[in-house]
Amino acid sequence: MAYLYLAIAIVSEVVGTSALKASQEFTKLGPSLIVLVGYGLAFYFLTLTLRTMPVGIAYAIWAGLGIVLICLVSWILYKQALDWPALLGIGFITVGVILINGFSGTVQH
Question: Measured between alpha carbons, how far is 58 from 49 in angstroms, rounded to an integer?
Answer without folding.
Answer: 7
